[in-house]
Write a structure and sequence with these properties.
The protein has 208 residues and is an alpha+beta fold. The chain has one domain. 18% of the residues lie in helices and 28% in strands. The chain has helices spanning 2-14, 17-20, 86-98, 177-184; strands at 23-32, 37-47, 68-71, 79-82, 106-107, 112-118, 124-127, 136-138, 145-147, 157-160, 188-189, 198-199, 202-204. A 4-stranded mixed β-sheet has the order 2-1-6-7, with no helix packed on it. Strands 5-8-13-11 form a 4-stranded antiparallel β-sheet, covered by helices on one side. The termini are far apart.
């Protein structure tokens, strides 16, 4: 009888929430490159075993809601992020904040088809890094997305969010402690990506 009870106890321990959550559910926006705006929203419900390769992101993360957990930060409301990187991100943000960099706004898990080839209607067909909870934007009001910006200079054109003013304490730079700490945990800064765009608020495994 004692052996039977122990066996049942072990079974309960082994069946973690991840194993029990066989259903994947997420809702994603659809970006139209021609109209330059969100034109639709789709809800996906499927078994985890049916996820395509495009639904399997960096760090072993997926866009499934059950793969996302809250960042517990004493200075910011809860934000969802992939469970596989949450503890590292949380540690870095708390350290940066304690060392004097105020974190006013965070954007992380946000499913959206905003990458990849266009379909016949001009809609993007692949999920962004934010979709997997593996990208995070910090203080976008002071670290906007810029175009015509192969290198940072006065000809860079603000495309989204706030103007970048180098003297402002919330402005991120390549030698900012937060940028350096993020790099140490495998999160590259969007202010250093190649090409004509610079996403100064953004961090992900690739910087894009």
């Amino acid at each position: 009888m004692g052996i039977k009870k122990n066996f049942l106890f072990l079974c309960v321990i082994v069946l973690t929430p991840e194993l029990l959550a066989k259903e994947c559910r997420y809702t994603a926006t659809v970006w139209n490159a021609k109209l330059k705006k969100v034109v639709d929203q789709i809800t996906v419900v499927k078994d985890f075993s049916a996820l395509s390769r495009h639904e399997k992101g960096p760090f072993g993360c997926t866009p499934c809601e059950s793969d996302q957990i809250d960042l517990n930060l004493p200075f910011h409301p809860p934000v969802k992020i992939c469970r596989h990187i949450a503890s590292k991100i949380e540690r870095v943000l708390i350290q940066a904040h304690e060392e004097g960099y105020p974190i006013k706004k965070i954007i992380a898990y946000r499913p959206g088809l905003s990458k990849g080839p266009l379909d016949q209607h001009g809609n993007r067909t692949e999920l962004s890094n934010h979709s997997f909870g593996t990208a995070i934007d910090i203080n976008p009001e002071n670290n906007g997305l810029y175009g015509n910006c192969k290198v940072w200079n006065s000809t860079c054109i603000l495309l989204k969010d706030g103007k970048r003013v180098l003297e402002h304490p919330l402005t991120l730079k390549k030698n900012s402690p937060l940028v350096l700490m993020m790099r140490e945990i495998g999160m590259k800064w969007g202010g250093e990506i190649k090409g004509n765009q610079k996403d100064f608020m953004h961090f992900s495994h690739s910087g894009y």
